[in-house]
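thread: overnight batch results

M.L. [08:02]
morning all. the overnight job finished for the chain we discussed friday. pasting input first so we're all looking at the same thing
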Amino acid sequence: MELALNKPICFFDLETTGTQISQDRIVEISILKIFPNGNKESKTWLVNPEIPIPEEVVKIHGITNEKVANEPTFKELSSTIWNMIKDSDLAGFNSDRFDIPLLAEEMLRAEVDFDLKNTRTIDVQIIFHKMEQRTLSAAYKFYCQKNLDDAHSAAADTMATYEILKAQIDRYPEALKNDVKQLSEFSQHKRFADFAGFIAYDENNEEFFTFGKYKNRKVTDVLESDSGYFGWIQNADFPLYTKKILTSIKLRSLNTKN
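M.L. [08:03]
and the structure it wrote out:
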């Protein structure tokens, strides 16, 4: 079954220097863009992260410091990548909690105004975990009856994720509709405003903090009662996209009052 699309959707995967959203960098990005008419466009870039790739990470994805030394930086690639994905929804495997937040960090660091307010996201891993509780390689074997021989290659992982989602729609017609909006909603544990999980939406679609001394408190209430909390977050080691979302909430609240 092919995906029923009203706009393009980009499946993507990152290989990185590590797993710290605000500190680590992309070393490879692969994007598979699916258009509503079924056409496909695929691009893969090696990226110079401008920081060392730890040896233990090289052992996982095989991308060495020497391999990316002469590759373009993410800043140099950012406009090309943004032009490819800006009109699309996004999908990946563990993408809501890792790939999208880290991509947002790289985009904002490159001074691209990365904004997902009109973008739906599908996390194929969450669908898989809700249904089967496995890993990407096991998911590919389970749903597609194929071995993922080139695991931790961004291009192979991206294509496998695309094929898994199509197979999931076929396998669970009672739970999944061939509709990006429903797939996006189903593939989320919580609705987060910032993807890194520091700010979530409640049942009234209002943002609240998920951490710290103001956990479960409405963001607008906290910003009003503790004026220094905004500045503390902006100066602390939070993801850039989290800081951007917090700033937009503060500005919206100020505009409402005025």
